[in-house]
Design goal:
The protein has 2 domains: about 150 residues, no CATH class; about 140 residues, no CATH class. It is about 55% helix and about 0% strand. The longest helix is centred in the middle third of the chain and has 20 residues. The protein is mainly alpha-helical and about 325 residues long.
Length: about 325
């Protein structure tokens, strides 16, 4: 089993995503309906991100496709990805997406997971050889940046769950966009928010992990968020206080992959994503410590166990297939 992203794996993942980003049904909407006029098909409501079961999964399907295209521009599925982007990321279609966000009852639509995912896509488009698509997406990108800037000063408390509402995950992805475009004021807002929310945390017991539908470790994604936003020395001090036990395999729950009993159940299938996102975080956090640090070997070994548990199940049942490959890419590239 490969534990790095090679061209063959990239093409396999790309073909999975190409099979669902334009698959309109089944679809799970996430809107408040203010009246009969709000009852629309997924494609009418979302001219771009109507596939992949729900809006945010479609967004990170597009992110993965762009990421793989940037890494492997000559892979067999590259032309199909380029055709998809030309077909979908048009000014007219993005205007339709913006109109959905502008509806009065949609202030909290896709907060905060979808917001972070959209900015992650925008960051990848900024790195693409063809910058047309970053420009096309920019009206929606600017709306999401604006939503973050309005929301974060009002958010007295973080959200620490292992699902879509987790705020550390959103900050972590949003930081990639801020860096991609050199928006220092946005990065400062993300950093100060992370310090306000997570700076005092210490001796995390990872209590309650995993729950029955987690796809994020609230402990590890918080650490990865701080890793992304703090200077290396500051992070090292914070991480040592926050998670003091990796060298002794504590907290034990973070080192053992979650068991997945039914991959046709959308919530239980989240646990494959938990194993992949833990692998991503463990690999990234391991790289933050010195090669001679005993924690590095232990954290990398934990990452490998989680990858081995999850990678064979990226495809199969649609409840996982419509999103898991994008988490696998994060883990394999960490």
């Amino acid at each position: 089993m490969t534990t790095t992203l090679d061209g063959e794996t990239a093409d396999r993942f790309a073909r999975i995503a190409l099979g669902h980003v334009e698959r309109e049904y089944p679809h799970k909407p996430g809107h408040v309906l203010a009246g009969e006029s709000d009852v629309q098909s997924p494609r009418e409501r979302h001219p771009v991100f109507f596939g992949s079961f729900d809006w945010h999964s479609c967004v990170h399907g597009y992110w993965m496709l762009v990421r793989l295209l940037n890494r492997f521009p000559d892979m067999p599925s590259a032309e199909a990805i380029r055709a998809l982007l030309n077909r979908r990321l048009t000014g007219e279609s993005i205007a339709g997406e913006c109109a959905t966000f502008d509806r009065p009852m949609n202030r909290g639509f896709e907060r905060s997971y979808g917001w972070g995912r959209l900015l992650k896509l925008a960051a990848e488009l900024e790195a693409a050889e063809d910058r047309r698509f970053a420009r096309s997406l920019r009206p929606l990108t600017d709306r999401i940046v604006g939503r973050f800037c309005e929301f974060l000063p009002l958010a007295t408390y973080p959200v620490r769950v292992g699902t879509h509402f987790n705020t550390a995950f959103a900050l972590r992805l949003a930081a990639d966009y801020g860096n991609a475009v050199g928006d220092e004021s946005f990065i400062d807002l993300l950093r100060m928010t992370a310090l306000r929310w997570y700076g005092p945390d210490e001796n995390c017991p990872a209590w309650g992990e995993p729950s029955g539908d987690d796809f994020l470790s609230s402990t590890l994604i918080e650490a990865e968020c701080m890793h992304r936003l703090l200077r290396a020395d500051d992070f090292g001090v914070w991480f040592g206080r926050f998670l003091p036990g990796p060298e002794s395999g504590e907290p034990k729950t973070l080192f053992s992959p979650a068991s997945v009993s039914d991959r046709s159940d959308g919530k239980i299938a989240h646990l494959d994503g938990l194993n992949l996102s833990r692998a991503w975080c463990w690999r990234s956090l391991a790289a933050s410590v010195a090669e001679t640090d005993a924690r590095r070997t232990i954290m990398n070994a934990a990452a490998e166990r989680h990858l081995e548990a999850a990678l064979p199940h990226v495809a199969g049942d649609y409840m996982g297939e419509h999103w898991l490959a994008s988490f696998a890419v994060l883990a394999l590239e960490a």
